[in-house]
Structures are given as structure tokens and as C-alpha cells.
Structures
1.
Amino acid sequence: MESHLLKSELPVDLQIEAKLCQLEFLNRVFQKRGQNLDDVSKGSYLRKIEQLEQHIYQLRIRKTLDLISRM
């Protein structure tokens, strides 16, 4: 899901929006398929969701620090 383009060329706001879309998609897939998945697959989905949440948090921190540095 990660692409080099997202990391280097898109503004932070768009990176955050892209990650939020990915997170929403994974959450929907997990809600629909979660009951039919084995424990390993559930764990894989949950880890990916957690990684996306952490990346969104890091991007928001970077955005905040950028705003502070411009003041």
C-alpha cells in the first residue's frame, strides 16, 4: 500500500487523507470478513490497521511541527 510517491512528493495533508482512506477501507473489509477469518488473518488485519493509525499520527505530528516552525 505504501508508495514512494506518497512519502516524497505529496503534501502532508494529502498523505494523511490517503492514509485515512486506506484505514477506512481496511476497517470495512475487516468488519465484513472478520467473522470468517482465522486468528492469523485477523491479527494481520489488526496489525495493518494499527500501523496505519500510527502513521497517520506521525503525519499529523509532522504537520503540527511544520505549522509551529512557520510561526
2.
Amino acid sequence: VGDDPNFEESWGQATPVGRPASVADVANAALFLVSEKARHITGQTLLVDGGWTSTSYVPDLQIPD
């Protein structure tokens, strides 16, 4: 990933927002979750993926017991 000069362009094309997530994008989500604005949010998964999962195939992973 770090050595791929086409990483940003290829992920930008695959992501509805047009670019891969930045460190700031992930940090802002984490800061929101620890803020008072998120005080009533419990047990949720917050996807910071620029809409990728809403437009891309995600396999149904079977996790063994």
C-alpha cells in the first residue's frame, strides 16, 4: 500500500467519496464517539470507509464457534 503509487487513485475510484480515508477521517470518528454528542450511542459499528461498503460486495463471513 505505502509503496503503490496508484493507491490513492485506485481507491478513490472505488470509493463513493472519491478518495481513501485519511488519518484525520478516522481520528474525527473516534473523537465523535468519545464526545458528549455520542453519549447515547451504544453497541454500534461505525464504518469509516467513505461509503465503500454501501456500494461494494462484502462477503458473508461465517465465523466458526
3.
Amino acid sequence: MVVIGKDRDIILDVSPPPLAGLSIDGKLTFSDDVDLVLSTEWIMLHGELTIGTPDRPHTRKATITFTDHVQGEDVMAGMGDRGIMISGGTLNLHGNRTHTWTKLAKTANRGATQIEV
């Protein structure tokens, strides 16, 4: 298990090996310079976890994967054994906004093999 202490401000700029758990009492910020993967059993958040801000959204790929190598583990009085468990902490997730749709420039008729956007 990894503990980020109350007075610590850590910037994650490499993907660490899989963790048995992550307790954040201080601050953990994902760097926006590289794609990152964080694999862990769970995250207990008493401090702050930041991946991007409203003014500077995260533009790289950030992946958090919850493993279940310790099945049935009870992290904190019934909170379960996988996920981000927030107890007095702050979770900031702001990604790059992209459109997942667009308007057609012309009507697409039934059976059309081309469309104009």
C-alpha cells in the first residue's frame, strides 16, 4: 500500500507498478505531459486527487484500474474493497472537452453511401 502523507504534494508523471492500495491524505496530481495508468486495489481519499482543472483540462490519457487481488477486503467499515472512497477529500476530474457528434451539411437520404458533414 502507498500512503501520500498529509503535508505531501505529489505529481504523478510515471505509471507506477500495480499498488495494493492508495491512501491520499495530501495531494496527488496527474501530470498532463504523458499518458498515465494507475492500477490499484482501491483509493482512499482524505486529501485531494486532481486530474485536470476547469481552467486546464487534462489532455492526455489518464486511466485508473481497480484490481481485485485481495478479494473481500474491507478498506474502511463497509466501504467495500474497490473504487475511490472519499471521506472528507476532494476529487477533481476535468478532461479535454470534445464533441461526439456533428451536424450534417446536407440531408442523408435512405440508402446513401456518402454523407456530407
